[in-house]
Amino acid sequence: MEKLKPIEGKIWTKPFQVLTALAVISVILIAKRFIFGLGDVTGLNDGYPWGLWIVYDVVTGTAIACGGYAMAILVYIFNRGDYHPLVRSALMVSLFGYTLATVAIFIDVGRYWQLHNVFMPNYFNPNSAMFEVASCITLYVIVMWIEFSPAFMEKLQKKKQLKTINRLMFIFIALGVVLPTMHQSSLGTLMIAAGEKLSPLFQTMFLPLLFLISAISMGFSIVVFESIYSSLALKRPIETPLLSKLAKLIPWLIVVFLVIRFGDIIYRGELGLIFNFDLASIMFIIELLMFLIPAIILFSEKNRSSSQKLFVTSAVIVLAGSLYRFDTFIVVFNPGHGYHYFPAFQELMITIGIIAMEIMAYLIFIKRLPVLPEVKHA
Amino acid sequence: MNIERRDFFKILSAGAVTAVGAKPAHARKWQHRGRNNDAPAILYDATLCIGCKTCEVGCKKANNLEVEHSSLDEWHGVKNVWDSADDLSTSSYIKMKLYKNGSGAVKDQEKDGFSFMRSACMHCAEPDCQSVCPTSALLKDPKTGIVTWNVDACCGCRYCQVACPFEVPKFEFDKAFPKLQKCFLCNHRIAEGKIPGCCEACPTGATLYGTYEELLVEAKKRIGMEEGKTYDFPVNRVDSDRRETQKVKKYNSYVYGEKEGGGTQYIVLASVPYEKLGLPKLPPYSSSGKSEKLQHTLYAYLISPAVLFGGLMVAAYRSTKKENKEE
Amino acid sequence: MTRNISKESSLGKNNEESVVKGVSRRDFLKFCTAMTASMGLPLGMANLVAQTIQNPQRPPVIWLHFQECTGCTESLLRATHPTIESLVLDIISVDYSETLMVAAGHQAEEAMKKSMEANEGKFILVVEGSVPTKDNGIYCMIGGRTALDILNDVAPKAGAVVAIGSCASWGGVQSSDPNPTGAKGIHEVITDIPVINLPGCPASPYNLLSTVIYYLTLGKLPELDKKNRPLFCYGRLVHENCERRPHFDAGRFVNEFGDYGHRNGWCLYKIGCKGPETHANCPIQLYGDVGSDAWPVGTGHPCFGCTEKGVGFVKPIHQQASVFTATPPALFPDINQDKGVGMGAGGAFVVGAAAGAAVASGVKLSKSLKEKDTAEKEDKE
Description:
The complex is a heterotrimer of chains A (378), B (327) and C (381). With 378 residues, chain A is mainly α. Chain A contains 14 helices and two strands; from the N terminus they run E-H-H-H-H-H-H-H-H-H-H-H-H-H-H-E. Chain A has helices at 14-36, 38-41, 52-64, 67-77, 84-108, 129-156, 159-189, 207-233, 240-247, 249-267, 279-299, 301-304, 307-331, 345-368, and strands spanning 4-5, 372-373. The longest helix of chain A has 31 residues, at 159-189. Chain A is globular, with a radius of gyration of 21 Å. Chain A starts with a strand and ends in a 5-residue tail after the last strand. The model of chain A has no long low-confidence stretch (mean pLDDT 90). Chains in contact: A-B, A-C, B-C.
């Protein structure tokens, strides 16, 4: 078993200072949002009530943060211990993704002081997919902090507690798989209620399954991407053999995704819509290419052993999955009645600030906590 | 099966309540779906509408709403001259809109004509807003079928706006403590035995109050009437003594809202195709019905998550056991 | 503009040189300009109009009265610019008019005969009142002849036929159900000669004057609508020029006479105003030259629809009009009114910058990875 170790080093570096600046701007803008209302900083309107924050920070952000979920399935459920060195860093990225998604929800909802009503027995509504998403995300965030707690305990040398938690960990690992399975699919269910506002190319009863599969493939891709990127940025050796083995799974997931997507469209007899070349069809084709081309590349053993190809394909798949989410929630979503939406400047700056905070937390954690595998000097 | 599931959740919530040791202030009203024949309803007949906007005035008076300005008025600095919102909003529960084509010369004609359209909450039989609301802030009254918004419940997630096929719920994006508002069919006036402000104000009978059944009969009668003949159209309410004689125009062949999206309590008649008036073509069921069914199938009695959880625990236990031993 | 001029000219300034009796030159030219404008002619033609009016050859007019109340003549008598005497004596030559002429009996009939013979094809025939057609028209007889007879005798010799008032235009009040006399409008009896209808109860005298002068000036009939009414005075709905229109657009209606809205000049639609379906220039031309508000709606009574066949004398007074506004007003939001802000410069910049940075760093990293890959390969080899 490989040992995980903090990589130490200075935290207050130049890039960190830039990130701090972005985060500070975002905090100021968030304060502005709470004082003057959502309309002051966002481009949201009654036709597009869900904008960048929901779609990026929550829907896409949590899908990108599915690394921990995907790795947990692989390592603990399919018992592939060889991927173990990647687990904790993947989990950590997920942890930040989800934690900040809950923060984003809090910023985004209009009547945040009543947000707890979602869980109040006299108010909650199990008919709503939102109820399921909200409860699962909240629970999952708690579960992930528990899953990640050994890192703190190792740091603080709390051996006894560490042992207890490790013994009970299987419960949390199981929960950490059930909960994302439920809410990643329910994120798709959210848009079934939008009905006719979504083009038949995107509106389907298979939305939950498509969202779930694309989330898992995004999860694996982000593990590959994050591992290569951090190795490059932190000047550590790239774990190419391990990653290329992991990458072998991705194209198969994408194949399943595309087969379901196409099968459903053909079954409903809407295939002709792909060749309409309107917004929905163009976005559909772009997505298709962004899923298909990396999948084809990754099918080849040779390509998988190239860290460059792994890096590019995993990035494109993450983007493809993100695009799929943006299309479903904003781009192809058409409320009619003459509504327009594009994220406003301040809205974007808040999201960028939240991403900056995520990266800052990542940098602090890897430098101070045992997250990344120890580098063996050759 | 539905009722059983409801009971299940009731037990769940009851359990949760006892666990917390608290008692909810009022018993949980379960969500009502469907349309009672004697429920209050509104029929809007675009061919009778003269675009006078008195309904808007009546609505604002009945609900003490503020005057609003269109973006154009604001651009020109026009203030408090008259009410001119661009669309429904938190202070405009109904909005007169205009369809115009080509020269716009003839009323109630699709080509080179125009038609008015009165946007308002349709009070669906299967309200998408109610189904998707995570805090049950939007509820359909089991007796009157009126869909209302509860200020104490709403968390402002705006899922109702995403789901509503008619773009009705409106949210105060410009306020720090925003509210969501929509027409609630003047249920305070109906409780007093009065009729909604808009129906009382309408001078021509274009906005007509009555029970759903009466109005549907009236609407179908109108569709069946011969074009060009005169008919004494009731004003204010369908059983009113006050009638106005007008010529019958050519109607679309069906009543919008009888079946659309599972049916609505605000039904519409017009000469111009309904889609042109901003009323979407909808299947005869609500989209939220589909998502609800899916959710309840996947998570019936929480069996599938429980089974999954059990299986996963076994698998995870095996893997972690090995790990723990190694340490 | 028309309104202002008519006000001033009604004051009359007799100290200046008179062209037409009782009217100063200045007022006369103002009148001509106003006429030109109300006829819808270019203002440059005012001089031509003035010349026409000053022409010593006054056009002969034969004015017939049938089934009517003489209200149209009465309103003409009350015209003040010009006054009736200058109109009759200086502008036109009324050769026969039972109300105005001094002659009576056979003398009068003789005068008409003479004028008809002398001016055949040139005189203007003005008919006031409807023609009874039932029972050979015995319900209206003048000098032993039925109205039908007289009309069939005179009309074919006229240069132009003008039917003044609602009665002459389509039968008016006499033609209301059950129409016991079989009353018909002039154009329904005289079908082979074009008839200009100037409906109204009474018809605005200025519409008659304008029509006559138009004919004299240009030698042709003015443009007419489907109901044979000159477009220059009947081209628009009362609703379109109504001073109470803003109240209609804002939904402020009178519910009953004397209520708050009525006292404050709100829209009379709800109590039966026919303005939305009646074509006339009443809100602009007004009545009696006494200044603003001197027309039915101005005084607080709903428009009765007297200039519109099928509305006046047919629809009950308090029945609501059907609104067929020719062009819908602009103050309604469109069904798909633009809402929400599209791409802003700031947002676009951030998105562009972020995408650019991501792609650039991606390319850079990818390149360094490629170098690493090749280096590894070489190492292996």
